[in-house]
Structures are given as C-alpha cells and as structure tokens.
Amino acid sequence: MIAIIDYGSGNVGAIANIYKQLKIPHVITGDLEQLAQAERYILPGVGHFDTTMGYLHESGMVDMLNEQVLVKGKKVLGICVGMQILADSSEEGTRSGLGWIPGRVRKIDASTLPAAPRLPHMGWNSLKPRREHPIFEGIDFDRGFYFLHSYWFGAANEEDVLGTVDYGRELTCSVTRNNVFGMQFHPEKSHANGVAIFRNFAGL
Questions:
Q1: Which of 121, 149, 173, 188 is catalytic?
Q2: Known catalytic residue: 58?
Q3: I need a surface site. Which of 58, 83, 180, 199 has the fewest CB within 10 A?
C-alpha cells in the first residue's frame, strides 16, 4: 500500500487517480496509524517550505515518518516542496527540513536567466540523468517533465544527485539517498513520463 500523505499541500487527487488507473493499492491519508501501516510514502507538494514543515510537526507526522523511513527503511518519494523538505533547510523559510538528504534549498538566481518572465520556472523541460536508476525506467528524457518552482535543491553530496535540469544553469531536479527519493518536477502533470515515475516507484 502506498500512502499519499495528506498535509494540505499538493495534488493528492491527481496522484491518486494515476495509481487508480495503474490498479496499484494506495490511500490518501494523514492518519498516523494508517500511515504507519503503509509500505511506501509520497510527499506531494504545492506550497511553502515553512508552512509544510509546520503542518508536519503539528500533526505528529515528523516523528512517525522518521521511524518508518529512517529506522524501518520504507521508501518515500517527495514531489516539488515535498522534495525540498527532504533537505536540511531552505532559503524560503527559517524552519529546519527533515534532513533526510543533506543540502540546502536555494532560490533560482534570476540574473542567470535570459528573458522574462524569469521566475517561477514553469512549463516543460528536459531532464539530464546523472546515472541509470530503476525509477527512470521507460522515461523519455528529452520530452522531460512539467516544472513549477522558484527554488531548487542544493545537495551537499553530488552522489545524491540523480538528475538535473537546465534553467539558466544546471539545477538539481532529482535526488536520492538509500530509500529516499525526490523530484522537483510534477509527475502528476507530466503525462506518460509522470505515470512511469509513479509506476517505477511502486515497484522499487
């Protein structure tokens, strides 16, 4: 069972619809007992870093997720701000992130971009994989994914970077460490490539 974590942020319904079409068991929930029974987690994301972390702390999810992900080794996929909160901190706020993948989230430097509107980075863009990985099986990297963001994940360790996107400069857009995965783009808006990401994650 995949738990799509409901913390008031993200396109949870769109993600659930994809898993419904794929006939993969899933649930949208913020219930701690139900979450503890899940085999995998998705942290969706549309929103602000501090707001998201605040809700996770207030709901008691941080301690529960630390136990399930760091101790029990269950797999988790963070999307957009759900990826950014995997980091230690962010220039978007003052709260600490989950710290599951060392790094700091930074604002895209608009001075590196050739034309307005510069931010947010919005629309389709290709992805440059750093290495082969099962989560990228069947992906058309040239077609890429749909992006909507103004901040990017500055990974402390290059070996944690799974893929990058070119937007003024090379920006990290996918990370992984052990059982933790993050995607800056929105798979739920990325048609066949996005469906492949969700299918692959379920099979890891």
A1: 188
A2: no
A3: 58
